[in-house]
Design a protein that fits this description.
Blueprint lengths: L1 H6 L2 H11 L1 E5 L7 H11 L3 E5 L5 H9 L5 E5 L4 H10 L3 E4 L4 H10 L3 E5 L2 H9 L4 E4 L7 H9 L6 E4 L8 H5 L7 E3 L5 H5 L3 H20 L1
Parallel strand pairs: 1-2, 1-8, 2-3, 3-4, 4-5, 5-6, 6-7
The structure holds 3-phosphoglyceric acid (3PG).
3-phosphoglyceric acid binds next to strand 8.
Length: 221
């Protein structure tokens, strides 16, 4: 499956992420967390991870995750073209950025790696669609108006699908996944930093499992 992940086209990576419907946003404080966290994700059935470039360990952690053939791993908080290069070299299969950056998007296009830039306004979305993108992170989701804002923005951009992230959790997940424009939700609630610091891997596994079950239930209903 690792070979398959490496061979996936841009569209196929996007389809796989949207098929899972969940993007755990991970901050690794200690490289020693990477292996048990990857195991927790696999055990829970949550086969993707966004490893954020927010700590010095991020790149090494990403490489550990990428060594797990069951996981489709991406880099988050990517702010420069150089980070795109380093992330892809470490095994990232997709890139998430907090805002819309032309250099980042261009680097991803050149390297044929999917990119989901953050947007929170009609102007952001317009620029991203002009750059040829149609799957966008909506960030910070709750602070930017939540599901109601996405519903309003989807009207003039019916071809765009969103990954709301920031303030999303079990309580408001149904509001987001209930929108046709939402293809996936991102967040850290299933990989809490304090639980990882405490080494509570059973707890993390259970939170991930619950998130997977909630998405499955919402999609079935
Ligand atoms: C992100 O970077 O995407 C967000 O910080 C994740 O937000 P959350 O911690 O509220 O889920």
């Amino acid at each position: 499956m690792q070979t398959q992940n490496r061979d996936l086209t841009v569209d196929a990576v996007t389809d796989r992420i949207t098929g899972i419907g969940l993007l755990p946003v991970i901050v690794v404080d200690d490289l020693a967390q990477a292996r048990p966290l990857a195991r927790a994700l696999v055990d829970s059935g949550l086969h993707t991870a966004e490893v954020t470039f927010r700590t010095p360990q991020a790149l090494d952690a990403l490489a550990v995750f990428a060594g797990h053939p069951e996981l489709l791993v991406g880099a988050g908080t990517v702010r420069t073209a150089e980070q795109v290069r380093r992330a892809q070299d470490a095994g990232a299969r997709f890139v998430v950025s907090p805002g819309f950056s032309e250099p980042v998007v261009e680097a991803c296009r050149t390297r044929e790696i999917p990119v989901f830039p953050g947007v929170s306004s009609a102007t952001d979305i317009h620029r991203a669609t002009e750059a040829g993108l149609d799957v966008l992170k909506f960030f910070p989701a709750e602070a930017s108006g939540g599901a109601a804002a996405i519903a309003a923005l989807a009207a003039p951009f019916p071809d765009v699908r969103f990954i709301p992230t920031g303030g999303v959790g079990p309580r408001n997940l149904p509001d987001y996944l209930g929108l046709p424009a939402v293809c996936c939700v991102g967040g850290s609630w299933m990989v809490p930093r304090d639980a990882m610091r405490a080494g509570d891997w059973l707890g993390v596994t259970e939170l991930c499992r619950q998130a997977v079950a909630q998405v499955a239930q919402l999609r079935a209903g």
